[in-house]
Design brief:
By secondary structure, the protein is of the alpha/beta class. The chain contains 5 helices and 4 strands, in the order αβαβαβαβα. It has a 4-stranded parallel beta sheet with strand order 2-1-3-4, sandwiched between helices.
């Protein structure tokens, strides 16, 4: 792993959820990024469940990050992206003026997502009808 990868950190910031396992996919993405990019890749959540942004940022700085890219793990450009996340990042920048802090682009629209959604539609064709699910909270359909 090169010196550049160690000096830069990436923080994926998602909404978060109280539901057990709901954030597992974001953690898998972070693990994949660590394997692909090397260096520091952290995650945090807006919901108050899991690690908050300030803690994730401070951990990155303690690990030697001199540049931190905060990548919003969001599809839509809503209030968190317009107001909440920029304000959190500005506060962190004031606390750590020696660290370059970048608000990266959210997931938003990308042609790759069209391909992914088409793939999910194909995968969904063979799933059970919702009336066949047990009368409990809907989780991912078995199979």
């Amino acid at each position: 792993m090169g010196e550049e990868a160690v000096m830069r950190a990436v923080i994926l910031i998602g909404h978060g959820s109280r539901a057990a396992g709901a954030d597992d996919d974001m953690e898998k993405i972070a693990a994949g990024l660590r394997a692909k990019l090397g260096g520091i890749v952290a995650t945090c959540r807006m919901s108050g469940h899991g690690i908050p942004f300030d803690e994730a940022f401070d951990q990155c700085v303690r690990q030697g990050a001199k540049s931190v890219i905060v990548l919003p793990y969001f599809l839509h450009f809503g209030v968190h992206l317009r107001e909440d996340i920029p304000e959190m990042i500005r506060k962190a920048a004031r606390r750590s003026p020696e660290v370059r802090l970048v608000l990266g682009r959210h997931l938003g629209y990308d042609d790759v997502l069209v391909t992914l959604v088409a793939k999910r539609i194909g995968e969904s064709e063979g799933l059970c009808d919702v009336r066949e699910l047990a009368p409990a909270l809907i989780d991912r359909c078995p199979g």
